[in-house]
Amino acid sequence: MLEITPAAPSRAPAALVDFVWGGDAWDLALHALASGGARWVRSRRIGARRELRHWRHPGGEALDLTVFHLDGERFAEAARYERAGGPNLHPVPLVLPALVELGQPMSPAPGAEVVATWHGEAEFALDGRVERRRALVLRASGGGQTRIMWLAAGVGEVALGAEGLPFDRWCVGWTGGDARFLGPLDAPGPLADLPLAAADRARGLF
């Protein structure tokens, strides 16, 4: 499992756009799941639009497409689709300010709260490999549960789990353009398009 150790904290505000892949070509990541199996993850950003896609591994089954809108004032998770043609599972966008202050509660939607709890340099260790990179921690509460998300600068979401527990999902390798993070990745093989009909699966963590 990925181990993350905060190293050099910063009290400076964090620009959320710095914590996602900024290229207009697709990046590629593999995320391991504590429940078994893994997910291929690809993202790209064209102008103010960011797209994030997940596929089941092994198998290459398309799981979803999430669309974000990024500008100088907001970072919004605007839409999520599980099948071609919709419907949008986010009828109300989940909106955060583009620049977040540590410890300042934010409300992306009614009944939900997000707080940036840590920002600065961190060490990421996996299978004997150690990398140092700027990181941001978001704590999200809502629906009776609290979850922690780690983001790495230039990469995106790299670990997710319930507060105080081991991660449910964590990155084991990422590549974007000429950049690399953690382990090398094998070719993913064919990755399917979104299906015409949504699969019957539980909502929540992929």
Which terms summarize this structure?
206 residues; mainly beta; 13-stranded antiparallel β-sheet; 54% strand; globular
Layout of secondary structure:
Layout: E1 3-9, E2 14-15, E3 28-33, E4 38-46, E5 49-57, E6 62-70, E7 74-81, E8 94-97, E9 99-100, E10 113-126, E11 129-142, E12 145-152, E13 156-162, E14 169-176, E15 179-182
Antiparallel strand pairs: 1-10, 2-9, 3-4, 3-14, 4-5, 5-6, 6-7, 7-8, 10-11, 11-12, 12-13, 13-14, 14-15
Structural category is: mainly beta
- Helical coverage, percent range: under 10%
Largest sheet: 13 strands, antiparallel
Number of helices: 0
Global mean pLDDT: 94
Share of residues in strands: over 45%
Subunit arrangement of the protein: single chain
List low-pLDDT spans. Answer: none
Shape: globular
Q: H/E element string?
A: EEEEEEEEEEEEEEE
Record field, number of beta strands:
15
Report, as a whole number of angstroms, the end-to-end distance: 17 Å
Tally of discrete structural domains: 1
What is the gyration radius calculated from CA atoms? 16 Å
